[in-house]
Amino acid sequence: MQNLDIVPNVGHQIRKLRLQRGFSLRGLAERCGITANAISLIERGENSPTVSSLHQLALALNVSITEFFRNEDEAMAVYVVKDQGIRFRSTGLELENLGSGIPNQLLEPFRLIIDPGAGTMDDPVSHPGQEFVHCLEGEIQYFVGCESYWLSAGDSLLLEARHPHGWCNNSPNPAVLLIVFQSVQDRRLACRRHNLPHRCCLI
């Protein structure tokens, strides 16, 4: 069985997608709000993007976050053995992809391990679709707009992801979350099923 417990070359995937779309570094920077120098460092593997940066890059490239983690081959089902999902490490957290690679994928499941003291409140994120959060271990404070929610093991949160949101681990222990994002692709599917023009799906 192939060992999936590796850190993917996220920067390589971002560069490949950027070039496929004909974007220069400066062009992509203008679309996503991240500096060209920061994108260059990410592409060369010299800097790790934050979760917020991954969202911004995915939206600018018109892909789901799972595109940065996926293998080239698509499958009818993806089986991930416990603790063997593709992992990405950044400051204060570890992100594990729990499944990607099926055609027209609409869900993006991840496991997040958030270190004590880590948070995203200085860099909140907003994106199309909805987001489901389930606390598996520890405690986490989740912010959605002006509201604050305390989640401990067993608690869940479902939110409209267009509102700025983020988290903060103020506890002395790591927090482990299951997070399921609604893929960018789902916006197009919803438009088609409601017979809406494509421009209605744009941000």
Distance between the termini: 41 Å
Put simply, the count of helices is 5
User: Which regions are unreliable across 5 or more consecutive residues at pLDDT < 50?
Assistant: 1-7, 185-203
Series of H and E elements? HHHHEEEEEEEEEH
CATH topology of the largest domain: Jelly Rolls
Shape: globular
Name the CATH class of the largest domain: Mainly Beta
What structural class do helix, strand and pairing data support? alpha+beta
How many distinct folded domains? 2
Q: Characterize the biggest β-sheet.
A: 6 strands, antiparallel
Going by CATH, the homologous superfamily of the largest domain would be Jelly Rolls
Annotated CATH architecture of the largest domain:
Sandwich
Mean pLDDT: 80
Q: Could you estimate the helical fraction of the residues in percent?
A: 10-25%
What strand line-up does the widest sheet have? 1-2-3-9-4-7
Task: List the topology elements.
Elements: H1 10-20, H2 25-32, H3 36-43, H4 51-61, E1 87-90, E2 93-97, E3 107-114, E4 130-137, E5 139-144, E6 147-152, E7 156-160, E8 165-168, E9 175-182, H5 185-193
Antiparallel strand pairs: 1-2, 2-3, 3-9, 4-7, 4-9, 5-6, 5-8
Account of the 3D structure:
This protein is of the alpha+beta class and 203 residues long. The protein starts with 9 loop residues before the first helix and ends in a 10-residue tail after the last helix. It has five helices and nine strands. It has helices at 10-20, 25-32, 36-43, 51-61, 185-193, and strands at 87-90, 93-97, 107-114, 130-137, 139-144, 147-152, 156-160, 165-168, 175-182. α1 (10-20) packs across α3 and α2 (25-32) packs across α3. The chain has two domains: 10-68, Orthogonal Bundle (434 Repressor (Amino-terminal Domain)), CATH 1.10.260.40; 87-186, Jelly Rolls (Sandwich), CATH 2.60.120.10. Helices cover 23% and strands 27% of the residues. It is globular and about 45 Å long. The strands form two sheets. A six-stranded antiparallel sheet has the order 1-2-3-9-4-7, with no helix packed on it. Strands 6-5-8 form a three-stranded antiparallel sheet, with no helix packed on it. The model is unreliable at 1-7 and 185-203 (pLDDT under 50).
